[in-house]
User: Which sequence fits this backbone?
């Protein structure tokens, strides 16, 4: 029987964990659960103009949205209410800089109330100022990203992954001419002007205490 492409990739990535996991502190692969995870998709979004009767003069700027669709594919034990309490997505993004460098930005975001019987989307955002500061360009474009990738975690174990621009697992390796930095933020949807929009499309971001 032919092995599905996703499972092949999952097994390859799991093998790389066995080789590099301890030294790099990576997630162990789950034996009890698996998610179906699609490749990242990209959207250029302008800051929304809201007519609240107090109009102010401003020119909307471009945000870059990265979203990933996922769905529970396999669980050893199905929750009685068909919801998982929480998952975590570890995001990694490499942005091409105007200074001929590239910058790797990472963030872990937790999501709650995850349905096990339907698809949901998770997303991160690069703000107009972050993009312009790094790239020097006023317009957002996925061509400014060298790579996007990450892992979906349930109970501290990897249940799926996604990648764009480089082979899966690139975020575990040292990359030439790429500087890891926390100077530039990756924002979750609740931290953007899009927070109230398309709400039921996206997994709920876990509120901060």
Assistant:
């Amino acid at each position: 029987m032919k092995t599905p492409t996703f499972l092949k990739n999952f097994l390859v990535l799991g093998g790389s964990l066995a080789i590099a996991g301890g030294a790099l502190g990576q997630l162990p692969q789950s034996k009890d659960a698996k998610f179906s995870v699609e490749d990242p998709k990209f959207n250029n979004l302008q800051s929304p103009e809201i007519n609240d009767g107090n109009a102010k003069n401003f020119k909307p700027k471009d945000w870059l949205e990265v979203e990933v669709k996922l769905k529970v594919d396999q669980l050893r034990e199905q929750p009685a209410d068909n919801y998982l309490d929480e998952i975590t997505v570890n995001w990694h993004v490499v942005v091409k800089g105007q200074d001929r460098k590239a910058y790797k930005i990472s963030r872990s975001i937790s999501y709650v109330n995850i349905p096990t019987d339907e698809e949901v989307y998770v997303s991160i955002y690069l703000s107009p100022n972050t993009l312009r500061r790094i790239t020097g360009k006023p317009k957002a474009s996925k061509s400014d990203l060298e790579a996007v990738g990450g892992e979906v975690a349930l109970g501290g174990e990897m249940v799926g992954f996604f990648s764009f621009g480089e082979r899966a697992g690139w975020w575990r390796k040292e990359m030439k001419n790429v500087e890891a930095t926390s100077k530039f933020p990756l924002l979750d949807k609740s931290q953007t002007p899009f927070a109230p929009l398309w709400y039921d499309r996206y997994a709920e971001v876990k509120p901060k205490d």
Summary: Strands lie at 33-37, 41-46, 62-75, 83-96, 102-115, 120-126, 145-154, 157-164, 178-180, 204-205. The first strand starts at residue 33 and ends at 37.
